[in-house]
Amino acid sequence: MAKRSLPYDPQKATTVELAAGGIVRKGPRGPVLLLHEREEGRWTFPKGHVEPGETLEAAALREIREESGLSQLSVTRDLGEFTYRFFHPVHGTNVIKVITFFEVESKGGVVTVEDLFDSYRWVPPEEAFGLVRYDSERQVLQRVG
Question: Most CB contacts within 10 A, which of 10, 65, 101, 138?
Fold first, then answer.
């Protein structure tokens, strides 16, 4: 059974997580990369935590490389910051997650997904809009155009 985040619990402590990621395009106006998360059974974009001392842009590129195996990448623009909250049952805390997304162009390479994922797809942004689960992901897609 897929694990899902629980609703925010106002009776529990809250932590803030800073993350960065990318809407990776195959070429300057090509399709976007979606990764399928094995445990939650959902399509998402590559993203993850920011290391101490790391810039948001550097974190986004590192996470994309780690999660997709792509290395020929260049940031084309900053797509903005998105915030959402949820309850993390394993840690017993609420999480406020702040993610900065960048539009990133892939200039080639083979996708080899990290173990967290079981597949990937290159799809037009309009198709990705219907495949992602969260409103924040749809909001960032609207900025890609």
Answer: 101
Query: What pLDDT is stored for residue 4 in this prediction?
Result: 53
Nearest CA-CA partner of 33 in 134, 85, 135, 102:
102
3-state DSSP helix/strand/coil % of the chain, to nearest 5: 20, 45, 35
Encode pLDDT of 97-138 as tens digits. 999 999 999 998 999 999 999 999 999 999 999 999 988 899
The answer to whether 45 and 23 are in contact (CB under 8 A) is yes
Radius of gyration of the chain (CA): 15
Containing structural domain, residue 51: 18-85+102-144
Which tokens go with 145? 């155009």
Dihedral angle sign, alpha carbons of residues 82, 143, 34, 137: positive
Query: The whole model's pTM is what?
Result: 0.88
